[in-house]
């Protein structure tokens, strides 16, 4: 995910922007600013420098910034080296890159056959 171009993201919360409430996205979203509340979408990328406090439900979640809350990912969660995460994660696949900080719980349910 780290090498994916910005053209891949259909939606974006840019630097200097703060969004609150229930946010629902179709396709991929990149969060570079601040967000809190509930976030739902196919693919959620929390960029380096972003600050998010939310309950996230998505297929894939990648975090390079600061995150607190809860993540329910149907496919995969990846914490990049710059990630600072304090949350509960439920996902069948978790990737922790060297340098990532994770404080919380992780449940890894099996994928449905």
Estimate the helix proportion, in percent.
Answer: under 10%
The total of helices stands at 0
Radius of gyration, taken over Cα atoms and rounded to an integer in Å: 13 Å
Spans with pLDDT under 50 lasting ≥5 residues? none
**Quaternary:** single chain
Task: Please provide a written account of the structure.
This protein has one domain (6-104). The chain has strands spanning 11-13, 18-24, 28-31, 34-46, 51-63, 66-79, 84-90, 94-96, 101-107. The protein is built from no helices and nine strands. It is mainly beta. Strands 1, 2, 3, 4, 5, 6, 7, 8 and 9 form a nine-stranded parallel β-sheet that branches.
SSE blueprint:
Layout: E1 11-13, E2 18-24, E3 28-31, E4 34-46, E5 51-63, E6 66-79, E7 84-90, E8 94-96, E9 101-107
Parallel strand pairs: 1-3, 2-4, 3-4, 4-5, 5-6, 6-7, 6-8, 7-9
Salient structural properties:
single chain, 113 residues, mainly beta, 9 strands, 63% strand
Briefly characterize the structure.
This protein has strands at 11-13, 18-24, 28-31, 34-46, 51-63, 66-79, 84-90, 94-96, 101-107. With 113 residues, it is mainly β.
